[in-house]
């Protein structure tokens, strides 16, 4: 899912898009980070029919919060962080982007919250940062192997009648 989100988000901007809270080298500002920060897994699942090999697919929908952050130097000529993320959210809601997201198996449910959060960096300079939270939904699946009883052996004794019988498929 993380790789799919990366490709979808990178298609929305020319600036670098990186996964948040990584240990890599921070790119030159401006850049965007993304983080799938909260998943709600429902207690219900959908079960497929069991195939002839005993395989059954189990699916569920996951509701998640996708967090985007945009960083730029305060004195930069690049778009203000609020304006940039607002524009990115608007692009995500266009029909062409909705089609891309739907085809990738991700539904953009809601644009939740856009917050301006500048901070003081290690060099004692303010960095322009805004955070956008989006609600998304996608499907997760797992495979189960259902074991079949292939043969049953019956040993029986009824009064004077005694015997054994094997029943197969």
Descriptive overview:
The chain is α+β, with helices and mostly antiparallel strands. Helix content is 18%, strand content 48%. It has 3 helices and 9 strands. It has helices at 2-10, 81-92, 95-103; strands at 17-19, 31-40, 46-47, 55-73, 106-116, 119-120, 126-145, 152-158, 161-167. The strands form 2 sheets. Strands 1, 2, 3, 4, 5, 6 and 7 form a 7-stranded mixed β-sheet that branches. A two-stranded antiparallel ribbon has the order 8-9. A hairpin with a 5-residue loop joins strand 6 and strand 7 (126-145). The longest helix has 12 residues, at 81-92. The two termini are 41 Å apart.
What is the secondary structure topology, with strand pairs?
Elements: H1 2-10, E1 17-19, E2 31-40, E3 46-47, E4 55-73, H2 81-92, H3 95-103, E5 106-116, E6 119-120, E7 126-145, E8 152-158, E9 161-167
Parallel strand pairs: 1-2
Antiparallel strand pairs: 2-4, 3-4, 4-7, 5-7, 6-7, 8-9
């Amino acid at each position: 899912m993380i790789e799919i989100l990366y490709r979808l988000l990178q298609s929305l901007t020319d600036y670098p898009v990186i996964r948040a809270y990584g240990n890599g080298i921070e790119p030159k500002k401006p850049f965007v980070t993304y983080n799938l920060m909260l998943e709600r897994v429902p207690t219900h699942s959908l079960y497929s029919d069991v195939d002839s090999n005993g395989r059954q697919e189990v699916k569920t929908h996951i509701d998640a919060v996708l967090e985007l952050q945009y960083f730029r130097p305060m004195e930069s000529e690049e778009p203000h962080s609020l304006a940039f993320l607002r524009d990115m959210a608007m692009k995500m809601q266009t029909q062409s982007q909705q089609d891309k997201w739907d085809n990738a198996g991700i539904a953009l449910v809601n644009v939740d919250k856009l917050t301006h959060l500048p901070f003081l960096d290690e060099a004692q300079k303010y960095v322009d940062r805004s955070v956008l939270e989006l609600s998304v939904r996608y499907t997760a699946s797992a495979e189960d192997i259902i074991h079949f009883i292939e043969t049953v052996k019956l040993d029986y004794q009824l009064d004077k009648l005694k015997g054994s019988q094997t029943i197969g498929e």
